[in-house]
Amino acid sequence: xxxxxxxxxxxxxxxxxxxxxxTDRCNFRCVxxxxxxxxxxxxxxxxxxxxxxxxxxxxxxxxxxxxxSQILTFEEITRVARVAASLGVNKIRITGGEPLLRQxxxxxxxxxxxxxxxxxxxxxxxGTGFPALAKRLKEAGLGRMTxxxxxxxxxxxxxxxxRDGLAEVLESIRIAKSVGLSPVKLNAVIIRELNDHxxxxxxxxxxxxxxxxxxxxFMPLGTRQAWDREHVVPGAEIIERIAAKLPLTRLPAGxxxxxxxxxxxxxxxxxxxxxxxxxxxxxxxxxRIRLTADGKIRTCLFSLGEHDLKPALRSGASDxxxxxxxxxxxxxxxxxxxxxxxxxxxxERTMSRIGG
Length: 356
Ligand code: SAM
Ligand code: SF4
What we know:
Elements: E1 17-21, H1 38-41, H2 74-86, E2 91-95, H3 105-113, E3 120-125, H4 130-140, E4 144-148, H5 154-161, H6 166-178, E5 185-190, H7 199-209, E6 212-217, H8 235-243, E7 249-251, E8 260-264, E9 271-275, E10 288-291, E11 296-298, E12 307-308, H9 310-313, H10 319-330, H11 351-354
Parallel strand pairs: 1-2, 1-10, 2-3, 3-4, 4-5, 5-6, 6-9
Antiparallel strand pairs: 7-8, 8-9, 10-11, 11-12
Helix pairs in contact: 2-3, 2-10, 3-4
Iron/sulfur cluster is lined by residues 26, 28-30, 33-34, 96-98, 126, 148, 351-352.
C-alpha cells in the first residue's frame, strides 16, 4: 500500500517509532508496575492510604485482564504496523505486559520483520521463557532485545518483581548475546531505598558482560498511584554515583529522538545509558506512539485519552482509511508530559497495560 504521507504532529515532530504491546498480561508483579499486594505497592510508604483496587481475600489485587476478544489478533497488529510503515514508521518495538507470554510470538515477529521499511525490530521482555524461544525469535527476524534487570541480588530481585527469577533472567541475557540479538540492552528502573544501592554493581555488570545497561527514572505509572518524587533517583545523580567509582566517558547522541544519554565504561566493554523522563524530559524530540494490546493508539505515555483503532480494523476499513485515521490521531499528540505540574494527573493505565 502506498499512501504518500507521513505521521506529522502539530509540533513538527514526525513519528518514526511504534511501540506495540501484544498482551496486557504478565507473569511478574513488579512493585512499580503490577504489584501483587498493597504492601508491595507501598513498600516505601508504610502509612499510605492509597486507593485499593478490588482484591481477593488474601489481599492480592485482582487484575482484570482484557478478554481475548478485545485483544488485537496478529493479523490486525501486522496490518497496523504495515500502514504505519507506509507513513514513515521504520522502528518497531514489541512489548507488553510480557510479550513472550503470547503464544506464537515468533510468527508475529516474522510478519513484522518482513514489512519494509522497518529497519529496527526489537522486543522488551522480562526474559522469562526466553531461553526456549531465543533461536526462533532470531530466525524470525528479531533484531535486538531489551531485557529488564532491576537487581543482581536474588532476594532484592524477588522483592522487586515478586518472582524468584534472577537466575533465568541472567541466563536469558547470556543466550540473547550468544544468538546475536544485539546490542543487548538491559533496563533497570531505579527507585530510592529499593535498588539505588545496586547502581554501581549494575554498571559493573554492563562492563563485565559487554552489554548496554540503561538506568530509568521511576515514572508515575504504577497500579496504585504509589509514586512520589522522593523515590525518583534523578539521572544526574545516577551518573554521579557511577562516575565516583568507574571511568565514564560521554558518548555522542545517535539521533535527536534518542531517549537516553549514553556513556562508555572504559576499555571499550559495555555502555550505560540514563533515561530521565522525570528530571530531563525529552518530549520536544519525541517521535514515538504506542499501540496497546486492545487496539488503542496512545500518543504519549502519559496521555489521558486514547484512540481506538479496533472499530476501523473490524469493520472493513481500507488501508487508506486506516492511514487517514492515524494521521488525524497524530495531530492530537501532546506537546509533552506534565509530570511535576501542579495539575498532573496520572493515566489510569499502568505501564504493563500501555507497553513500555
Ligand atoms: N514485561 C516487559 C519488561 O518488563 O521488560 C515489557 C513491558 S514493561 C512495561 C517495559 C519496561 O517498562 C520495563 O523495562 C519496565 O521496567 C518499565 N517500567 C514499568 N513501569 C515503570 C515505571 N513506573 N517507571 C519506569 N519504568 C517502568
Ligand atoms: Fe511485568 Fe514488565 Fe510490568 Fe514487570 S515491568 S510487571 S515484567 S510488565
